[in-house]
Design a protein that fits this description.
The protein has 358 residues and is of the alpha/beta class. It folds into 3 domains: 126 residues, 3-Layer(aba) Sandwich (D-Maltodextrin-Binding Protein, domain 2), CATH 3.40.190; 74 residues, D-Maltodextrin-Binding Protein, domain 2; 87 residues, 2-Layer Sandwich (Alpha-Beta Plaits). Helices cover 41% and strands 25% of the residues. It has 12 helices and 15 strands. The strands form 3 sheets. Strands 1, 2, 3, 4, 5 and 11 form a 6-stranded mixed beta sheet that branches. It starts with a helix and ends in a 6-residue tail after the last strand. The model has no long low-confidence stretch (mean pLDDT 87).
Length: 358
C-alpha cells in the first residue's frame, strides 16, 4: 500500500533533523581543523582538499543527485564552515552581479564576504596587501579568447594561482512584468551583441538602452514596468527581479574561465594544471627551443598565449598552461631545461584541473 503525503513528509522531517545534527557535528570537526591550521600557520582555505572531497563524494554517489547538485550542496556546506573559521574576504571585479561575482560565489558559496573592486588591478592589489584573502579574476573566454590585462598583471605580481573556476555564460531576460508588456531593454553593448539574434526574433520593436553594466541594467528594469534587462541570474537574486527567459545568448557554448589568486599555490591533487610565464628573445627558433623539454617528457601544453615583454622592451612573454603539478619530477626537470633557454621563468601556480568537470 502506498504511503500518504503526510507520512512521507514526517519521514522527510526526521531526515532533516538528522542532517542538521550531522552538519553541526561536521562544523565542530571543521572548527578543530581550523584551530590546528592557525597554530601551524596553514591556509584556512584548501582547494586541493575541497576538490578531493567533492570527487570522492561524486564517485560514491549512487542516488538521484547529479554531480552538479552534489557540488552545489557541498559548496554551501563548505562555505558555511569557512565563515565559521574566519571572516574570509574575496575580492572580485565588480560591481555586484557580474560574471566574476557569479564565479566567486560558485567557488566560495554565499557565506563568505565579497568585496567588489573597480578594476582587475585593484583585485590584485587588495589581495597583495592582504585586505582580501583571495581574489577572483577572469582569464579566458571561449569566444573572445584570453583576458590580456589579467595576464599582464601576473608579470609583476607576487600572487599565485590556487584554483580555477569555469562557468557557462548565460544571459537571461530579467523583468518584473510579463514579456508582452516590455517596450525597453537595458544592458551593456557587449551583452546586446551576444543576444542579437534573440532580440531580433522576439523584441525587434523594443528600444535598446545601453548602460555601463548589467547590474545597472537590472536596477533600471526593476523600477520600470515596461522594461526588461539582459544579464546573469545572480542579478535577479540581488535586485529582486524575475527571470522571464533563460539562456537567450546566440552562442550556447560560451564559457569563461576564472582564476582564484592568493599568496600560496595549491599542493598536488593528482590531476593538476600548472600556469607559467617565461620570456624568450625575439629571434628565430627561440620559442621552439624553449618548448622542447616539454615535448621530450611528453608533457601536454594545454594553452599558450603571447604578450609583449614590456619589462625588457623586446621579445615576448609566453603564458603557458601545462598538464601536471610543478612539483612532479618530470615537470621540474622540464622547467629547469626551460630556464636555460629563457631570460626569465615564473611559476604562477599549480591548481586542480577541473576543466572536464562540467
Amino acid at each position: 500500500m502506498s504511503r500518504t503525503l503526510d507520512e512521507i513528509r514526517v519521514e522527510i522531517d526526521a531526515i532533516d533533523t538528522q542532517l542538521l545534527e550531522l552538519l553541526n557535528q561536521r562544523a565542530d570537526l571543521v572548527h578543530e581543523v581550523g584551530e590546528i591550521k592557525r597554530r601551524e600557520g596553514l591556509e584556512i582555505y584548501a582547494p586541493e582538499r575541497e576538490e578531493k572531497l567533492l570527487l570522492r563524494l561524486i564517485g560514491l554517489n549512487k542516488g538521484r543527485l547529479s554531480a552538479h547538485s552534489i557540488r552545489a550542496i557541498y559548496r554551501e556546506i563548505m562555505s558555511a564552515a569557512l565563515a565559521l573559521e574566519e571572516d574570509l574576504k574575496i575580492a572580485f571585479l565588480g560591481p555586484e552581479g557580474t560574471w566574476t561575482h557569479q564565479a566567486a560565489v560558485t567557488k566560495f558559496g554565499r557565506s563568505v564576504r565579497y568585496v567588489p573592486q573597480k578594476s582587475l588591478a585593484d583585485v590584485f592589489s587588495e589581495v597583495e596587501h592582504r585586505n582580501a584573502d583571495y581574489g577572483v579574476v577572469p582569464v579566458e573566454n571561449s569566444i573572445e579568447g584570453a583576458v590580456h590585462h589579467t595576464l599582464d598583471l601576473f608579470a609583476n605580481s607576487p600572487l599565485k594561482i590556487c584554483a580555477q573556476i569555469q562557468i557557462a555564460i548565460e544571459n537571461n531576460l530579467l523583468a518584473n512584468s510579463p514579456v508582452e508588456r516590455l517596450r525597453r531593454l537595458y544592458s551593456n553593448p557587449e551583452v546586446f551583441g551576444q543576444c542579437r539574434r534573440w532580440i531580433t526574433a522576439h523584441f525587434s520593436h523594443a528600444e535598446l538602452i545601453e548602460v555601463k553594466s548589467t547590474a545597472e541594467a537590472a536596477a533600471m528594469a526593476k523600477n520600470d514596468p515596461e522594461a526588461g534587462a539582459i544579464g546573469g541570474a545572480l542579478l535577479a537574486e540581488l535586485h529582486g527581479i524575475s527571470v522571464q527567459e533563460r539562456a537567450i545568448q546566440d552562442d550556447v557554448t560560451n564559457t569563461t574561465r576564472f582564476l582564484v589568486i592568493g599568496h600560496r599555490t595549491c599542493p598536488p591533487t593528482g590531476h593538476d594544471r600548472t600556469s607559467i610565464v617565461f620570456a624568450v628573445a625575439d629571434e628565430p627558433g627561440a620559442l621552439h627551443d624553449a618548448l622542447q623539454p616539454f615535448n621530450r617528457f611528453k608533457i601536454n601544453l594545454a594553452k599558450i598565449e603571447s604578450r609583449p615583454n614590456r619589462r625588457e622592451r623586446s621579445g615576448h612573454l609566453f603564458h603557458v598552461d601545462i598538464a601536471g603539478h610543478f612539483t612532479d619530477p618530470e615537470m621540474q626537470t622540464a622547467l629547469e631545461d626551460l630556464r636555460e633557454h629563457c631570460s626569465s621563468v615564473k611559476i604562477l601556480g599549480s591548481y586542480p584541473d577541473n576543466s572536464n568537470d562540467r
